[in-house]
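Morning!

As promised:
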Amino acid sequence: MKDILHPSASNLRAARGFRAAALGVALALLSPVALLAADGWASQGGGTTGGAGGSTVTVSTLSAFQSAVGDNTARIVQVSGTINLGSSSVRFGSNKTIIGVGANSGFVGDLKGYQISNVILQNLNFSNPNTVGDGDGLTLQFVTRFVVTKCKFTQTGDGALDMTHACDYGTVSWCKFQYTSDTGHNFVNLIGHSDSNASEDTGHLRITMHHNWYSTLCKERMPRVRFGRVHVYNNYYGAAGSNYCIGVGNDCQILSQNCYFDGQSTPWKNYSASGHQGLIRYSGHVYVNCSQPTWAPNSTVFTPPYSYTLDSASNVKSIVTNATSGAGTH
Amino acid sequence: MTVRPGLSAMSRSSWMILVLGGVLTLGLALRTLGPSVVVPAQTPLVSPAHGGEATLVRAAAATVSVVSPTRDRPSENSPAEGSELTPEMRGALALGEESGEREAALAKALQAWAAEDVAAAAAWTKTQRVLPAAVAKAAVMNGAAQTSAEAATTYLARLDGEEPDNRLEHGSLFIHALGEIGEYSRAATWAMSAEVTEVDWITAAFDRWSTAQPERAMLAALAVENTERRRAATDAAIGAWARTDPIALAESATRFPSGPEKNLAIITALRAWAEIDPEKASAWMIAHREALVEVPNLAVVAED
């Protein structure tokens, strides 16, 4: 009786586990697509729901894909197999969840979100080895309320995932970034593209990046930030030979917490011009065979307006690189 | 602490854009789940963290501080009970965490202990609760390597046996440790020949080798037969060389045979050089403009 009236922590966990499992089964029966709840900055500004509530369509060709994502109607678009996007950027509309089926679905080329809102991209593989379109795997410009999660980016010519031109309220989580060769431009995540773009970017570029795996031959921009308010936590920096990880650019604020820096030469680097010093706050990181940079004071930066869970930095490598549940797994 | 901003991006870009413009006019074709802490929104709280320790998380307006007796790691109770700690270890453990020096002092003392007695130091890491596990393993691996490469190999086997899921991590620690004792070639050979190798290991091994001995590392990388592994090795060797001596890399790269390695080496060297001295890098580009005609994507040099 006492356990019922005053359940122990373990009993509570068990009860919650059972409830979560039961709900999971029910949801799986109701829908073939596991819809996620947006976290981080993507939970703000009205939240990000993607195509929730819309119809579900499965596509496997470029023409079918463009037809499914070209409008702004809420829709869940399941991508089956690899779609070659051709020689220029392919755009998609607002209110979409674009989700890969299985482990081998995604795009070759440049997928681009432009002046849209409320989109979720999940379980997708991106590559753009021939640098078509904007040269990225995924280009986001003027995009608000977006989630990119459980995606894998391999060998993209420009950025892997660049978020510029006043993008806002975004979360990039559980993604793996890697390259198969060094092109001299293995620059992963650009947030804010120009020091002279303050009028457009100031007050925007609020983005959360957590549980991402920066892997083989990632060289720079993990991310590189101008103007934004960027929350970086629980990322695993395992890119041996990188030039730097986090770039602190003009007038930005970066909150970095509980990341695992594994043999990185420069965990964060200053890219601020005189009079426009960006700020970084750092806590709880683990540095293995590398050390905390000394150039930056531990500054006061923004407070995230959302709840989040911090994993122990010491465990981040094993969590993020887990072969079945880690970053980039589908 | 004074922030010392690096070279203004505008300044560098201006130089490089100017030079690139000149190069263009000259006819160059530019082708272009463990312990965790829940942080609520805007709310101070005391939350029980996994393992029973109390973790104070205070998220105040405009300031976030995460304060705990051990930050994000298991708490210290009675460190190294029954262990025969070295005086250095005892001294490091006696430091207050708030000093900010304990972790570094402990890692240094643990490494020294491992250099004397790998088994004892390794055993201590399994019971200790003051250092992040990854930091402790790195210290013991580095200490073991100070004894001999064989001792490091033995410790690697022990770690893989105890934690087979973390072999990626252990291999990285091993390569770093061999690098610390100058066994660069051995590390590279191990990375290449491991039964189930990881590209990250190859990258790490050649990055470290090239940092210390760039020309030797480059030659070794170019000699790798497997195409994918050779690419990883050469990419890493070029990247490290550019960080340590971009001018030497630029000069050497002009003598490389035509191909992707030469192009990458020139671009990477010029980017690194332009960060520290855009004027001289620009002058070098102009002086070598004929040799640069065939280098694609040279415009990337103007980016930060």
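Chain A has a mean pLDDT of 91.

Hope this helps with the figure draft.
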